[in-house]
Amino acid sequence: MINRTFILSAVFLFQASLQAQNAAADLPTSNLLSQPGPTFTIPDSQLAASVSFIAYGDMRFTDPKNLTATNPRIRKWLVEKIASEHPAAVFLNGDVPLAGYVLNDYAVFHDESAPWRAAGLRIYPALGNHEFHGPDPQQCLQNWWNAFPDFRNRRWYSVALGSRIYAINLDSDASLLPDGEQYKWLNQQLQNLPAKVDFVLISLHHPPVADIQKHIEVDHNPRPNEIAIRDLFSETARHIHARIIVSAGHIHNYERHNLNDVVYLVSGGGGAKPYYVERTPDDLYQSDLFPNFNYVKFSLRDDRLEAVMYRVADPEAATLEVTAKDKFEILVKR
User: Fold this and answer.
1) How far is CA 318 from its chain centroid?
2) Which pLDDT band holds residue 15 (cuts at 50, 70, 90)?
3) How many CB atoms lie within 10 A of CB 169?
4) Among 29, 118, 146, 327, which has the highest number of CB atoms less than 10 A from its own CB?
5) Which candidate, 134, 68, 73, 149, places its Cα nearest to that of 104?
6) What is the DSSP letter of 290?
7) How far is C-alpha 120 from the geometric centre of its chain's CA atoms?
């Protein structure tokens, strides 16, 4: 028999989550815009001869005693593994804490991400819905900025990672619709890219393209908010030199799609409770393996961007290791 109390509790939590997201979207943004051009610039002289970067998300840092919402062993091990890769940058696509209102979640993030600081990694986070979990979205946002002070007063921003890679981190808890400030800023960024940029990485939490679910996790299907920028990317990709890659999370798994010459990734395997995915034919990753704790490493070459999805081979193994499970490349436009 279905437990009526459980159902009512689940409905309450879902409604509370929607209210929190709506409140986050209503927070003022006019004073949070980046200036035209890249918000941050890392010159080529500060990068290694062989440039690489990593994208992933959905870690849900929280009390290590919580074994339900996240896997603390995997979460921490992935941080250490990524540090050992020594990438030029790490782009986090959201849900860094389990609950943005809980200061201890950010304290756990600070402790467990010590290997990144020790390795001198550049960390560029995007806001997810869990960053706004709590009764006061404004306080959640302050907690985020206290954890990442370099991004204070910005909910979206851009990074010129050398002369050939341009990254744009978006906030999918705010409007991405054509009449919104963020959309207009994003469009301006894309239309005014430096001439030498070959690749643009878009990092955000909610995916613009994903396997459409009909039975489970249907509330994680792409929303109109993100579909709006999917259409913008399709149009923009036709006439700009740079190739566009979109890295999202929210779905705790891995997916890869190609739509109108834009690569769309779901890399939500940072440690959060895994979500099973019913894969559609458009998904270029068709493995039935589960769960998919993972990160994606990109390596810049003269004429291409090489990408590898590294998957935790066996989350229950005594000694953890990753295997290169999905490989693809994106050629420079000529």
Assistant:
1) 29
2) very low
3) 27
4) 29
5) 134
6) -
7) 20
